[in-house]
Design brief:
With 235 residues, the protein is an alpha/beta fold. The chain has a domain at 1-111: Vaccinia Virus protein VP39 (Rossmann fold, 3-Layer(aba) Sandwich). Helix content is 34%, strand content 22%. Helix 4 (89-97) packs across helix 6 and helix 5 crosses helix 9 (196-213).
Length: 235
């Protein structure tokens, strides 16, 4: 909603929810669309089926974002926490921006947590335990803010900002809450490259660092800061 609320202008074309997932934003996008068609795009049939049930979309398209192209020039392309899973942003972002119709806006949110202990420690500990085994470039990757500004600001009115959100992660009897939060997303490529015993060794070392970086409260919960990068481009 913070990303959508930052959109000040839309062109005349469709509203695209790029990487719509289960359709959590469908209704809110429809409310802002002012009669424009709202189109959800995702690569997962299972996610699209859930999005269909949200009733916020005029149509849904199954497509790989790297190959997707709109049927007509959009007025808004909204993409929340999706594009960081795709590489080569120096090509991807200008390609997506070029799809917009006159006066259209691209609105993007990307996790910007890679340098925080919650994410960085997976790679540093894995490289320490298993030198050369882990691709330290694996997982979500984004450009620096300066690179996005250089890439996109010549194309229109560009705004960029960061917000650090504090969220309470609930207690987990079997692990540190930050481990549970990161192991199925950011850490998945690292863990998938190891066998069961190696994964156990890595997790033990990771949790030792997490107990220091993100202290567990008396009730077992953790207050976890998570940084996100936002930008909008209106052409």
């Amino acid at each position: 909603m913070d990303l959508l609320n930052a959109v000040g202008q839309m062109g005349a074309g469709d509203v695209i929810d790029l990487g719509c997932g289960a359709g959590q934003m469908g209704a809110s996008l429809a409310e802002r669309a002012m009669g424009r068609d709202v189109v959800g795009v995702d690569a997962s049939p299972a996610m699209l089926e859930k999005a269909r049930q949200s009733r916020g979309y005029n149509s849904l398209q199954q497509a790989d974002i790297r190959e997707w192209h709109p049927r007509r020039a959009p007025g808004l392309i909204y993409s929340n926490a999706v594009l960081h899973w795709l590489d080569d942003h120096k090509t991807l972002m200008p390609r997506i921006a070029a799809m917009l119709g006159k006066g259209g806006t691209l609105a993007v949110q990307l996790p910007h947590q890679n340098n925080a202990p919650s994410h960085r420690v997976w790679l540093t500990v894995a490289d320490d335990l298993f030198p050369g085994r882990i691709d330290t470039g694996a997982g979500p990757g984004i450009l620096t803010p300066v690179e996005y500004d250089t890439l996109l600001s010549p194309k229109g009115r560009f705004r960029m900002w960061e917000t650090e959100y504090y969220q309470r992660l609930g207690a987990d009897a079997e692990s540190h809450p930050v481990r549970r939060y990161t192991e199925s997303t950011y850490a998945r490529p690292v863990l998938d490259a190891l066998d069961a015993d190696e994964r156990a060794a890595l997790i033990t070392r990771y949790e030792e660092v997490m107990n220091s970086a993100y202290p567990v409260r008396a009730d077992g919960s953790v207050l976890f800061p998570f940084r996100r990068l936002f930008f909008t481009l209106t052409v």
